[in-house]
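Entry: 4Fe-4S dicluster protein
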Amino acid sequence: MSLVITDECINCDVCEPECPNEAIYQGEEIYEIDPDKCTECVGHYDEPQCQQVCPVDCIPLDPNNSETKDQLVAKYEKLTGETYAE
């Protein structure tokens, strides 16, 4: 699944620079995540970095964008042009 930022976001600006895929951007009211770019940090880190730095824990899995690990790996490879290595 990709991740989603809920309306509990306080616009603290810490998540955006942590995203290796540049999937996080400032929306009209709060930060948002582009599901086409979010790989949950698969290929980059062991855990989603935005979740690690969020002070209010407002970045859960997006139930509307369910993806398997294989799908996340394929997205990582498409976005980076690199082969996934565990």
